[in-house]
Amino acid sequence: MKVDKEFVLREIAGDYIIIPTGKTVLEFNGLITVNEVGVSLWNMLQNETTLEELVQGILDEYDVEEEVAREDIQEFLDTLVSGGILAKDIQNADEESI
After folding, report:
1. What pLDDT score does 90 carry?
2. 52-67 burial string, b = 16+ CB within 10 Å, else e?
3. DSSP code per residue over the chain
4. Which residue among 26, 73, 76, 80 has its CA within the 20 to 30 Å range from the CA of 61?
């Protein structure tokens, strides 16, 4: 999975906000504010990554239990998917279903 290049993370007045650019401005209504952990996840999602890599990255950076991290990361990813911000690797998904 990897974030859509039409969305960018910006710091505005001390808050981190995911905003649409280009054509997506017309299709996406709203902004998503993220915390420090969300910024870390966003940075990891700039390159193709897996859920396991995201979980390990957060465990390495923050003092959090694995189960809590996994649940929070999944919730964050679900938000990105529902907003059309996160692009899943279709090729890998196809290979897994074979």
Report:
1. 40
2. eebbebbeeeeeeeee
3. -EE-TTEEEEEETTEEEEEE-TTHHHH--S-EEE-HHHHHHHHHTTS---HHHHHHHHHHHS---HHHHHHHHHHHHHHHHHTT-EEP-HHHHHHHH-
4. 80
Q: Which structure tokens are listed for 40?
A: 């870390």
In this structure, are residues 46 and 39 in contact, taking their beta carbons and an 8 Å threshold? no
Using a 10 angstrom Cβ sphere, with 0-12 exposed, 13-18 middle and 19 or more buried, the burial of residue 17 is middle
Confidence label for 40 from pLDDT (cuts 50, 70 and 90)? very high
Task: Report pLDDT digits (tens) over 57-84.
Answer: 999 999 999 999 999 999 999 999 988 8
